[in-house]
Amino acid sequence: MLVGTTLPQFNADAEAAIVAAVRAEELGLDGVFVFDHLWPIGRPDGDVLECFTLLGALAQETARIRLGPLVARVGLLPDAVLIHTLMSLHRMLGDRLIAGVGAGDRLSAAENLAYGVAYPPVADRIRAVDVVCRQLRVAGVETWIGGRSAAIRAVAAAAADALNVWAATDAEVAAEGADVPRITWGGQVDLTVMDSAALAERLRSIETAGADFAVCAPINTPWPAALEMLARARDAVH
């Protein structure tokens, strides 16, 4: 199983996120992933580093580790602009880029509307995910679609390389991965209630359920220590 991490992105200081990404690469982690939000969920007054600006900086600061949005939300940018943005990253990163794309959810609407960006009906957003992923795949970009609905799974089966399921149980990974080419997992890991050995066991169970890549969002632990723990768990299951 491959193991990646999110970053300290809900922060005014870009240096913290860049340092964490460089350290993740040094420790042998397989991927670094960036959220596509306009503010920290539930905190409109909070700081956040913009997804693609940060990925552009990480393209320069890293050399091996895979990078991508988890996930880029259709509708924040026009479809053609989103495709162009991800294609530009692909020119910088080549096969290091994983283009995660998603339709957003009920928590996304407030962000869009606060910035004067329309929030189309779900059917329109899912069609946009299909269009974006198909065009990226034609260009050779690896695409993951994030989401848990039957409609988004159908798009992932037809138009993407993998479905990413956030906070899924092992049973959900197995069930939702049955109809798609590949399934990957993402979710928070509280490293105050599990050590590296316990995290490795959790990763093994996710892998047994069918996922081949786990993106961990560590919480409640300082980033240097969290990355060390993720790396030890990754080495135990790789």
Notes on the structure:
The longest helix has 17 residues, at 122-138. The model has no long low-confidence stretch (mean pLDDT 96). Strands 3-2-1-9-8-7-6-5-4 form a nine-stranded parallel β-sheet. It is α/β, with parallel strands linked by helices. It starts with a strand and ends with a helix. It has nine helices and nine strands. Strand 1 (2-5), helix 1 and strand 2 form a beta-alpha-beta unit. The protein has one domain (2-237): Luciferase-like domain (TIM Barrel), CATH 3.20.20.
| Global outline | globular
The CATH superfamily appears as: Luciferase-like domain
Proportion in β-strands: 15-25%
Low-confidence stretches: none
Instruction: Please tell me the total number of domains.
Output: 1
For the secondary structure, the number of strands is 9
Rounded radius of gyration (Å): 17 Å
CATH architecture level-2 label: Alpha-Beta Barrel
What is the helix tally?
9
Mean pLDDT, all residues: 96
Instruction: Please estimate the helix content.
Output: 40-55%
